[in-house]
Design a protein that fits this description.
450 residues; alpha+beta; 6-stranded antiparallel β-sheet; 5-stranded mixed β-sheet; globular; disordered C terminus
């Protein structure tokens, strides 16, 4: 048996074992009468069901396979143009809402989370119809366009500060790096498309509608009065954000708005904030991390906020939950929902009760959060409910070993609590290691108990 076949064999066996644990193995010959797979015919799959023979190798079909009776069609591809907007890259959370008073019409919101550099570079010209300055890794050094750098990162802000004294090569590097940053930031954010129902029951992008785009640095199809803004305490101190980026999961509200979560913004801009709440002087350098060894291409971009057309982005403008009104494209970043690597958002809106919103933080050692509004919901369908997000309490979950726990309000008077002894030793906190077994030791926690 070849090494690759052996690894496939082991992988299939492990997947079969895990599948039996997750979904419950059933005796041979007994039909499954509950669960997702029991509602329709099973589809072909490369891995066996529990109890079936494990193959030594298999072919992977590069296609979307659906059960009988289900179908799919493509509404929008990366780079597709709809009126004034250009559809972004890396679609993540997708949500749909009906247009009130217009049967057969819908608003579709699609998040565009990050840039996968290898396919992004390889497919850019075909998707966009224009060329992108190339990036490559040669001997551990970054090549931008035709010029090889000394390392894998570049301080674009410092380079721009002495623009008048740059050599021809330096000026070309700055120009190409800024072009890469601009294109990347414009491929992030979210798209809002208007859909229409066809006579055959399918959906298509409406040709007679206004489609909108809110990316990392601006908006398209959004009126000046509806440009992105902050709402809640300290909104005047932050000023208006230029756009949104790193948009992961999201949701919809009973009053007809979309929610979009800004997650790993720290990859593209600074995440630190000065003690007085102002911007920090620290810089997030433009560069790359990871490399495809066979192609010599970088896998991830870093610090693209440094090359924004209007100057380096203010990192304080990102890391929030944004609420979007699809009728106008107005995007409001809700300060009371906290600033962290937002993974998701879930709402509980019931008449007579306070609005509750549950949030997840995708950072290593992150938390589960809950916001509760000060005032109660009167009508879940009332668009005035957006105002309830501006006043209330943000709480963090503290879990207990028995499965219970408590909600701790994030207030100035809330005392800090030292982590439990079995997870804290020598002034360090142990948190799970992502994508691998074991723990990661985080230091500098002794002072938290005082």
């Amino acid at each position: 048996m070849h090494r690759r076949s052996f690894l496939r064999y082991v992988g299939a066996a492990v997947a079969a074992l895990q599948g039996s644990r997750l979904f419950g193995a059933r005796p041979a010959g007994r039909p499954q009468t509950s669960g997702f797979a029991g509602r329709f015919s099973e589809i072909p799959r490369p891995l066996p069901a529990p109890g079936e023979r494990v193959p030594t190798s298999f072919d992977v079909i590069d296609d979307l396979l659906l059960p009988p009776g289900f179908g799919h069609e493509i509404l929008a591809r990366w780079g597709d143009r709809f009126g004034e907007i250009e559809f972004g890259a890396n679609a993540d959370h997708t949500a749909i809402l009906p247009l009130p008073g217009r049967p057969g019409r819908y608003h579709l919101m699609v998040n565009h989370e990050y840039i996968s550099v290898v396919p992004w570079q390889q497919g850019f010209a075909a998707a966009k119809g224009r060329e992108l300055p190339g990036l490559a890794i040669e001997g551990g050094r970054l090549r931008i366009g035709k010029r090889l750098l000394e390392g894998r990162s570049l301080d674009l802000e410092a380079l721009a500060a002495r623009a008048a004294d740059l050599s021809k090569d330096e000026a070309a590097v700055l120009r190409d790096a800024r072009a890469i940053c601009r294109e990347a930031l414009q491929d992030l954010g979210l798209s809002i498309l208007e859909l229409e129902l066809r006579e055959d029951g399918g959906l298509q992008v409406a040709a007679d509608a206004v489609h909108r785009r809110i990316d990392g640095i601006g908006t398209v199809g959004v009126a000046a009065a509806d440009r992105p803004r902050f709402a809640g305490p300290g909104a005047d101190r932050l000023g208006p954000p230029p756009g949104t980026m790193s948009n992961c999961s999201g949701g919809t509200s009973p009053w007809g708005t979309f929610f979009s979560c800004e997650e790993n913004f720290q990859d593209f801009s600074t995440h630190e904030v000065a003690a007085d709440g102002g911007p920090t002087a620290r810089r997030k350098l433009f560069g790359t991390s990871g490399v495809n060894e066979r192609l010599g291409l970088p896998k991830f971009l870093q610090g693209i906020g440094q090359g924004a057309p209007g100057g380096p982005l203010d990192g304080r403008h990102y890391g929030w939950v944004a609420e979007i009104d699809p009728r106008t494209g107005r995007l409001t970043k809700q300060i009371m929902l906290g600033r962290f690597r937002h993974e998701n958002v879930a709402l509980a809106a019931r008449a007579g009760l306070r609005l509750a919103i549950y949030l997840g933080d995708d950072a290593r050692g992150g938390h589960v959060w809950k916001f509760v509004s000060k005032e109660a919901v009167k009508d879940p369908a009332d668009r005035a409910n957006s105002g309830l997000l501006e006043d209330g309490s943000l709480m963090v979950a503290r879990f207990a070993a028995d499965g219970g726990g408590s909600w701790i309000p994030l207030e100035p008077e809330t005392p800090l609590v030292r982590p439990r002894p079995e997870r804290c030793a020598g002034g360090s906190l142990l948190v799970p290691r992502r994508s691998a077994a074991g723990d990661v030791r985080l230091g500098g926690l002794v002072r938290l108990g005082h």
